[in-house]
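We include the pair:
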Amino acid sequence: MKKSKLKTAVLGLNNGGELLLEAVHQGDYFQIEAVADKDTELAKRAAAQYGCLAYDDYRQLVMQNQLDCLLVAAGMYSCDEHIKTAIRRKINILKLAPPARDFEEIATFVRLAEGENIKFAIANPRRFAGGFLALRDFLQEGGGGQVFLITAICNVGNQVHPVWQTDPKLAGGGVVLSNCYDLVDQMVWNFAMPQKVYSLNSNQAVDRQQRLYLTEDTSVTAMKFSDTLFANLIASKTIGPKEKLLKIYTRDKILTVSEERFVVSNHLGLIEEELKYEADELCCMMKLLENFALSITLPDSNKLCSSGRENLQNMAVIESVYLSGRTGFPEEPANILQMSAEHT
């Protein structure tokens, strides 16, 4: 007997929200009940396309619909209280990364969701991308020997960002939080949380005083995972071309990994293996949504791929990046994580 579809709605019709809608529409697990965006006409067009209700008020959507789950693409500054309301109404939540503006905010959502016994999940679709899946398989099979260095590179290129992302109070952070969350997730997912984080962050504002009131567009971060494993994260919104990849150095191999490629080279730079994949955001999102749906309908046999509690580690690392940028000293993500545990 086929299970009924989960009643869902989408908050925020930015690029991520449109991708969620299309993935839900093409999948077999959800019924779109409503969409919401501050742009009324945008909401109406989406509602007409997908045959659902349109709202320009997030609170009304949450309060006026009986939903099984809520898919959130909007910036957290515009919907944090409405997500809390949805959780209290026992509506499962999937939030597009980044999951919050800071560590305290995501910890609050995780505690609320666990108290109501519902799912609070984070959408990390690159976990389902071909190149990163090949990396995970390679590492779990023990290929290449011991890893001793990781380099993560994120150049945003000419990508256009909404104005609110330059405001620390609204956005929480700049290029590290907004654009590097998936790379941090890959490092933590595959190699555990680093012990120490040291970061330098800045932006290209001409006036030094103005620089203090804008999110960073350039960041260089060093991480210590153990006495024998180190990493660095280099991120920029100011240079191109667009590039997002990991380079992983083992005793025997160099792994170059992106969404579309997985390359194994020797230390002379000669390629020994190269796998290529189609960059298909829609396919990755559909796989992610399938996992989310099954974790709700058949939880005993389907573990949630990217829970809010698991993502506390990512946010502890990112919080350490920003804290280190302010203090000028290395910071320990475990200390931030421990503060959350003490309040649970």
Summary: The chain has a mean pLDDT of 94. The two ends are 40 Å apart (CA to CA). The domain at 127-278+314-342 is CATH 3.30.360.10 (Dihydrodipicolinate Reductase; domain 2).
